[in-house]
């Protein structure tokens, strides 16, 4: 998967997966990790569509999703920007983390793990890393 | 969903050869639609029915809500798979011809596209490379303000730089969009990300269709799907 640099974004698409989700996920990640600075202008729909060689409708729906997340804002006549409010990014990040954990717990419970079992597994992973 | 082309049990044979069998589809409008499949799978035959150049043996077809034919074709810009019309023209001559004869032809749009696709307007068509000529043919279609653009194999036999320019021009056309663009191709090339919807044809049938993103989630990339199809798999 080749990464493309389009303006301030670095994105790489895998054409065997839905494209819209990949754009949303990669941009969410980059914003949450602070790789894209607050208040930065992001490429226009047209620029990103050209850069990635994809349908502008796909880019448009990804941008709408990020705006719903509170991570970007559109200023009329100026384009789309990363939010300048750190707390919006923090809120999104913790909500997202919460979702990922709930999903993880759900799957583990499905396998018959209790929360105590899970804690033990995590403890072991932590020791492996150290 | 608005529909641009509707086929109900459409059959078409040429002599003993069956080109299309029992095609029943609704092609959505205001999208980029890929008609994909190997050579001889029926893509061009379907397009010829859409243009009213051939009539189905049985079944019903409607295009933009009407029966296909000469009195519907002012609404359609068509790039046939074999087209060499403008031999003794310059590019400017071809544009003049377009203004005189092609409904909805927008000369300023054509000039803009020519600059952007790096086509010299003084150039004679019979001195063009295959890629340059393909770009000109595409400009003649994309410069028209009509509800339906039908491109039969626009990428075949064209070098990579020309293909990329064509895809960029299509991306821009979608950004401005009021149109439906039907594109047939047997090789996906760089067009993979361009389609809103795709219809996979094989042996005169539509074997699989749907929004491109849904098909990706279920089956992987369009390139992989075409590969599976042309090796006899049904991709279901």
Automatic annotation (TrEMBL), chain A:
Residues 17-85 form the HTH gntR-type domain. SMART domains: HTH_GNTR. GO terms for molecular function: DNA binding; DNA-binding transcription factor activity. Pfam families: GntR. This is GntR family transcriptional regulator. Keywords: DNA-binding, Transcription, Transcription regulation. SUPFAM superfamilies: Winged helix' DNA-binding domain. The keyword DNA-binding applies. It comes from the Bacteria. CDD domains: WHTH_GntR (cd07377). InterPro entries: Tscrpt_reg_HTH_GntR (IPR000524), WH-like_DNA-bd_sf (IPR036388), WH_DNA-bd_sf (IPR036390). PANTHER family: HTH-TYPE TRANSCRIPTIONAL REPRESSOR YTRA (PTHR38445:SF9).
Automatic annotation (TrEMBL), chain B:
Keywords: ATP-binding, Nucleotide-binding. Residues 5-228 form the ABC transporter domain. InterPro entries: AAA+_ATPase, ABC_transporter-like_ATP-bd, P-loop_NTPase. Gene3D superfamilies: P-loop containing nucleotide triphosphate hydrolases. GO terms for molecular function: ATP binding; ATP hydrolysis activity. This is ABC-2 type transport system ATP-binding protein. It comes from Marininema mesophilum.
């Amino acid at each position: 998967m080749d990464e493309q640099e389009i303006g301030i974004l670095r994105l790489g698409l895998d054409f065997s997966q839905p494209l819209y989700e990949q754009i949303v996920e990669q941009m969410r990640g980059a914003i949450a990790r602070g790789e894209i600075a607050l208040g930065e202008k992001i490429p226009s729909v047209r620029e990103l569509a050209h850069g990635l060689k994809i349908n502008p409708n796909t880019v448009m729906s990804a941008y709408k999703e990020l705006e719903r997340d509170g991570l970007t804002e559109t200023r009329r006549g100026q384009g789309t920007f990363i939010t300048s409010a750190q707390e919006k990014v923090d809120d999104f990040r913790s909500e997202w983390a919460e979702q990922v954990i709930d999903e993880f717990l759900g799957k583990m419970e499905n396998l018959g793990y209790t929360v105590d079992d899970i804690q033990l597994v995590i403890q072991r992973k932590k020791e492996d890393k150290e | 969903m608005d529909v641009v082309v509707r086929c109900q049990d459409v059959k078409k044979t040429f002599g003993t050869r069956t080109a299309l069998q029992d095609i029943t589809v609704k092609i959505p409008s205001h999208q980029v639609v890929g008609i994909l499949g190997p050579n001889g799978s029926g893509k061009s035959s379907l397009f010829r029915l859409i243009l009213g150049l051939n009539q189905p043996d049985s079944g019903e077809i409607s295009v933009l809500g009407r029966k296909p034919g000469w009195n519907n074709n002012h609404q359609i810009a068509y790039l046939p798979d074999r087209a060499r019309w403008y031999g003794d023209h310059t590019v400017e001559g071809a544009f003049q011809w377009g203004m005189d004869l092609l409904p909805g032809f927008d000369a300023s749009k054509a000039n803009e596209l020519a600059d952007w696709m790096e086509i010299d307007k003084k150039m004679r068509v019979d001195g063009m490379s295959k890629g340059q000529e393909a770009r000109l043919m595409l400009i003649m279609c994309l410069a028209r303000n009509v509800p339906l653009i039908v491109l039969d194999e626009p990428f075949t036999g064209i070098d990579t730089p020309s293909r990329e320019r064509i895809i960029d021009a299509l991306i821009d056309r979608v950004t401005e969009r009021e149109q439906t663009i039907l594109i047939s191709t047997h090789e996906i090339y760089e067009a993979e990300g361009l389609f809103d919807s795709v219809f996979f044809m094989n042996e005169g049938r539509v074997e699989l269709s749907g929004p491109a993103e849904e098909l990706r989630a279920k089956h992987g990339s369009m390139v992989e799907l075409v590969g599976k199809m042309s090796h006899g798999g049904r991709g279901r």
